Amino acid sequence: MAPNLGINENRRNFRQLNQSPTYSGGHLHTSSSSLKIPLSQHNSLQITMITVGSKNGNKCLVSLSNEQLSSDRPLYHSKINLMFCTGATGTAETAGWIKHATLINNCYPVGPEEKGPRSNELSYLIFYANSKPAKLTKCGVYLDKRVSTDVRKRRKQDTDISLQIIKALLEECNSNLNLFSKNVLKIISASLSTNDIDVIARAASVFITFCSYHDGSTLGVDVEFTQIYEDLISSFAQYAMCKDHNTTIEQRYRSIGLHALRATATSNALYTTNARTQLQHIIPAILYNLTDGLETLQEADLNPVNDEPIPQSRRFSLSVTTISLEENTILAYHCLKELFEKSDPSN
């Protein structure tokens, strides 16, 4: 899809330009003759000033760096709600997000050699979210829309960074989880649709973190949230029962699925009104892996493994990509054991 330039002039007079803007002769040219966007280069500051003139004669200045102009990532500016991006279409809905979008966009690395979010910018985003918890909803909505675009455009690195950002917000702003919990699940769901095992593993780590903080209070109350949550459990159960001609890939998918199901089985969200639906996905996947490794289970009976509890977040490692059948069998065993140990408070 060609880049789109969307300008919100006054919420009632919104135009969307569907042709790619081009730069020549000191101007951005678009398909609209009524829109003139002159550019002037300030070499000393390495800043490009964009002047946008609307039909009523109002003008605004927007400062964009050369890096931003050459990037294919969405760019927003608070003055005129300018959206200059590849694949994402500007809408009047973006008004009011701009501060949050700027803080989030600043977390993304500039160069391809950078693998994680920019630490200082991420720290500032977390500080901002903690200072104004009500803004977490808008942060979640923006990240949700951004991930949807990145997944559609197959931007693996940006999707991975977005997952790391939302996980950091989960860990640091968990006391206000319900303000953005639905967006977290939507982001995870969109990431699973990539069919990229590395992205799926990252999404699983976010889901594990989510389960450790989610108390299930919105399950059965918010219909959409409940459906997404159950669909995710079903997806991870399918990963746990993966069959592939490549044994390494198969066992890694199974490990991802089992770790996610283990997080679900030990979460307080299991003991809600929809527990039966969750268990219908969890138990068959666990048993599937137990029956595949009966010899391993017999050895485990003779040599009991250490049952000392380990923090959930440390049990799943993104760096481990080679997992054996025996490891997954033991993992399934622990998952079933913990499922029975965590009794339902209603009983």
Automatic annotation (TrEMBL):
Transmembrane segments: none annotated. GO terms for biological process: protein localization to plasma membrane. InterPro entries: ARM-type_fold, EFR3, EFR3_HEAT-like_rpt. It comes from the Eukaryota. Pfam families: EFR3. Belongs to the EFR3 family. This is 11029_t:CDS:1. It comes from Acaulospora morrowiae.
